[in-house]
Amino acid sequence: MTRALFTQQLSDIRLELLKMAAFTINALNDSFRALAAGDVNHAKVIVEHDEIANTMELDIEHKCLSIIAREQPIAKDLRVLTVTLKIISDLERICDHAADISKIVIRLKNEKYEAYLSMLDEMIATAKGMVKDAVDAYTYQDLELAQKVCKDDDVIDNGFQDLFEKLNGLIKEHLDDINCLTHLLLVAKYLERIGDHATNIAEWAVFNITGIHKQMD
After folding, report:
1. 40 class by beta-carbon count within 10 Å (0-12 exposed, 13-18 middle, 19+ buried)
2. Which residues neighbour 18 within 8 Å (Cβ) at sequence distance 6 or greater?
3. Are 120 and 188 in contact (CB under 8 A)?
4. Which of 101, 115, 126, 212 is least surrounded by CB atoms within 10 angstroms?
5. Distance of CA 194 to CAs 3, 146, 149, Å?
6. Which pLDDT band holds residue 216 (cuts at 50, 70, 90)?
7. Tell me: the pLDDT tens digits for 13-55?
């Protein structure tokens, strides 16, 4: 394979990763809108579309592994492919959590949970920002933005601990709402995991730029 063709294939794979990232961000934002509106029909669509992310991941993975097996790339080229494989895995998991949140919307279709949703606002905003910033850090090779994502992970972790205590207290006080409160606690846990995956993406973005991979939390 000529160098020009090899470079084009790497560029095509990067473009597919960015398309998957855009799909992931849209799925995540859609799941938050479905939760806020209690929109069961929209939630069902998000769950059904989760398979699209799985297909995207498998397709990109196949292309990366084929290049590695065929061309045996070294140095920066191998780093680019390794980073791609790592990031698409985290993107797929974020899509899974978007589907998980949507499944909760479906389960709570007969519940009145709107009064409790404001408790999740800060975690939702942080999770949304982290995923977008992590993708942008990779896209624009922005070290400072990647570092911001890792710092924001502390915010979402602390937010989960605070929310865990609040919701546990509410569960004891409002036994009639135990089902919706328990499910909202699950949403908070998914948000924390989304933050973890965004942090992973940011760390791989740093590795892509510097060649050094380390946990930045």
Report:
1. middle
2. 135, 139
3. yes
4. 212
5. 37, 15, 12
6. low
7. 999 999 999 999 999 999 999 999 999 999 999 999 999 999 9
